[in-house]
Amino acid sequence: MFRRGDKIEIFKKSGDEGWQSYMDEFVGLHGIITDPDTVINDPDALVEVSLVDKGTHRVPQDCLRLLEE
Q1: How far apart are the first and last CA of the chain?
Q2: How far is it, in rounded angstroms, from Cα 33 to Cα 31?
Q3: Alpha helical stretches, state H, the chain
Q4: Rounded to an integer, what distance in angstroms lies between the CA atom of residue 27 and that of residue 14?
Q5: Which of 3, 5, 13, 20 ranks highest by number of CB atoms within 10 Å?
Q6: Is there a contact between 34 and 50 (Cβ–Cβ < 8 Å)?
Q7: Interior CA angle at 11 toward 26 and 21, to 5°?
Q8: DSSP state letter for 52
Q9: What backbone phi and psi angles, to 5 degrees, belong to 11?
Q10: pTM above 0.90?
Q11: CA-to-CA separations, 42 to 25, 28, 30, 32, 64, in angstroms, rounded
């Protein structure tokens, strides 16, 4: 489960239906979790991330991995 403030990388395209073709350019980018949807507590829910130089987006969780602090 992701937490607000976690540093992440979008390391692959997602197989989730929430993945849009414009998101392909996000693969390899780093960012910070801004809204992990902990209220929903659903591992399939989209999470909000702030990506370096790309703004804030909602992306599926299966394309994210935590970066070491």
Answers
A1: 16
A2: 7
A3: none
A4: 10
A5: 13
A6: yes
A7: 40
A8: T
A9: -100, -10
A10: no
A11: 26, 24, 23, 19, 15
| Torsion sign, CA atoms 37, 38, 42, 44 | positive
Distance CA 39, CA 25 (A): 29
What's the confidence (pLDDT) of residue 18?
A: 87
Other Cβ atoms within 10 Å of 8 Cβ, number: 22
Q: Is 61 helix (H, G, I), strand (E, B) or coil?
A: helix
pLDDT tens-digit map of 9-53: 999 999 989 899 999 999 999 999 998 775 555 666 789 999 999
Q: Got the DSSP string for 14-26?
A: --STT--GGGGGG
Under a CB-based contact definition with an 8 Å cutoff, are residues 25 and 41 in contact?
no
Q: Which pair of structure tokens corresponds to residue 51?
A: 């990506």
